[in-house]
């Protein structure tokens, strides 16, 4: 008979059995090596995992998505090139670009993108998206780059009004997510709704020309006769950046190809035809003179 103060013996046997099982497994691992079994399991599991991952990527259309992103990047570059008032030096057909994704946001008005030096990205390159100017590359690593947003407190961008082409400077107003445009001409005609674009830099760095920046929302009262400022709402949504484009530089000029293989034979054939005609004319003249001579006899 069991007393109320002592538990049953089967409850005490469980820890003992677990300890014996652990000792048996340790002994089996010592006598019979289990590494081949572990390697086999890892290989089988790893292969299944890769196959499953590939199937998921294929089913989700990852390859198709990458193709669409590249096509969007190309179209954005062509649109940007078409908006330029004058082509930059040494090229007129577009830009060399690379697409990237925004992968991190900093509190200092920066964003990290997943394209770096390995993709040809270097500091002071223009970055824009489908809406407009994003900023410029601040620094790069092998696979990432830090971009200073146009709205950052220390950012400044040469700009002009798209319509009147009046020149000025755009600086960030980060507390409001806006930009401030200061025009060089204090008498410049500026009003809400005017579009602002980049002025462009020497050698296209840090900014290429005529990238859309934003729209004037408010013309500020002139503090003196030497200033003319306005607040600009940027086109780019800096808090919701996804796909961006980095301008690497101008497209190289295509070498002019002159095909002379067909022109030379044509010239030679023309010369031979002319010489043949002259010979025929000479023969005809000789015949005529000989006939006249016979008639005279």
TrEMBL record:
InterPro entries assigned to the protein according to its UniProt record, in alphabetical order: Cell/Rod_1 (IPR042177), Cell/Rod_MreC_2 (IPR042175), MreC (IPR007221), MreC_beta-barrel_core (IPR055342)
Transmembrane segments: none
Residue ranges, annotated region (Disordered): 250-297
Organism superkingdom: Bacteria
Chain intervals with Basic and acidic residues compositional bias: 261-273
Record key words, sorted: Cell shape
Rod shape-determining protein MreC beta-barrel core domain location: 109-247
Compositional bias annotation for Basic residues: 274-289
Protein family (similarity comment): Belongs to the MreC family.
Name recorded for this polypeptide: Cell shape-determining protein MreC
Organism, as annotated: Microbispora triticiradicis
């Amino acid at each position: 008979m069991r007393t109320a103060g002592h538990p049953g013996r089967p409850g005490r046997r469980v820890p003992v059995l677990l300890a014996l099982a652990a000792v048996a497994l340790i002994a089996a691992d010592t006598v019979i090596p289990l590494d081949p079994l572990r390697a086999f399991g890892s290989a089988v599991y790893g292969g299944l995992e890769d196959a499953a991952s590939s199937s998921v990527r294929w089913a989700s259309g990852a390859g198709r998505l990458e193709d669409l992103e590249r096509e969007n990047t190309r179209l954005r570059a062509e649109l940007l090139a078409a908006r330029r008032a004058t082509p930059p030096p040494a090229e007129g057909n577009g830009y060399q670009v690379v697409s990237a994704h925004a992968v991190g946001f900093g509190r200092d008005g920066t964003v990290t993108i997943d394209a770096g030096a390995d993709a040809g990205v270097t500091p002071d390159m223009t970055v824009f998206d489908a809406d407009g100017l994003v900023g410029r590359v601040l620094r790069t690593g092998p696979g990432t780059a830090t971009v200073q947003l146009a709205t950052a407190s220390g950012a400044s961008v040469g700009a002009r009004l798209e319509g009147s082409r009046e020149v000025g400077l755009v600086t960030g107003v980060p507390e409001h997510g806006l930009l401030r445009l200061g025009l060089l001409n204090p008498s410049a005609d500026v009003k809400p709704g005017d579009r602002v674009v980049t002025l462009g830099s020497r050698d296209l760095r840090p900014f290429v020309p005529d990238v859309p920046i934003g729209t004037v929302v408010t013309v500020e009262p002139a503090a003196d006769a030497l200033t003319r400022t306005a607040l600009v709402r940027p086109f780019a949504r800096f808090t919701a950046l996804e796909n961006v484009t980095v301008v690497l530089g101008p497209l190289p000029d295509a070498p002019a190809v002159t095909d002379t293989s067909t022109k030379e034979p044509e010239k030679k054939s023309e010369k031979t035809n002319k010489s043949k005609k002259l010979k025929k004319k000479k023969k005809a003249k000789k015949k005529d003179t000989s006939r006249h001579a016979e008639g005279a006899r």
